[in-house]
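Hi W., the retinal complex you wanted:
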Amino acid sequence: MIIPQDFTEVATKVASVLPTPRTSHTALPTVIPDLPRIYHQTSSEVGHSTLWVVCVLMGLSSLAFYAMAMRVPVQKRLFHIITALVTTFAFLSYYAMATGDGITSHPYVSGRSKHGAVTEITERDVYWARYVDWTLTTPLLLLDLCLFAGIDGASILVAVVSDVIMILTGLFAALSGNETQGWGWYAFACIAYINIVYQVGFKGRQAISTRDNKTRAFFGSISLYMFLLWTAYPIVWGVADGAHRVNVDSEIIAYAILDVLAKGFFGFWLLLTHDSMTRASPSIDGFWSHGLTPDGAIRVGEGNDRD
Ligand code: RET
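Structure:
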């Protein structure tokens, strides 16, 4: 038996699953409009294999960077550790994308009638694990370059925070429910990127100007290389995630090439050059190399047993 109170409850539940009327007119439409067609844009075997190949490359590069770190004294290991962490995060993010765990499907309007009605909706794969990776790894890559150049701490902080803002607003752009708003987020990300270029390019050149010729030439080449590669990311984003002009496989391949060059190749170049200029590279003592040392603590093997 339905008592009035139960009836109200049932009616509320039924009403909640029925589509909400779009207008306040009570008359039923005489013509039922066509529902939009739904399409899916996803990767094929090519994209999938590319993700696995990069996952393995990032894993192997990480092992190589950790091995290179072990070959230098702890005082000289800063760049090795930062670089190895970059490829380790990339390895994990590529694992997430290759296994399908770091992907979500995002709908966008891909077709409208002459009168502006939506006729087609496409659900495109968005690789959100990329953004998690970039949020962690791009600040570390910047740190590599900024510390190498000897940029001041205040500028490094501004560059790193701008970088995090750039990637997060890029993620909001990718997941935005409205195309115009999405391009708004993209614009914020580009402004943040311009600030990074200013901090690292301008302040970096000032900081490096007091160093020897070899270090200056190396900074000039590696920062230009980094600038060209980094600038390619928003371009790929614009044609892939933004304007949906290229398919998901091409997007995966483009980012895969950029990631290998911006993380793997960059890492080997930086570390091999750094290791070859041992005198010019910074040597960090104190907490980095010895941990917290309260007064009076005796460290075995450091020749301070007479202190
Ligand atoms: C997005 C889209 C929004 C606009 C801008 C972007 C810039 C991304 C960059 C990424 C760099 C990634 C690197 C990865 C290394 O493996 C987020 C694509 C400006 C510059 C260097």
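The beta strands are 37-41, 104-112, 118-126.

W.
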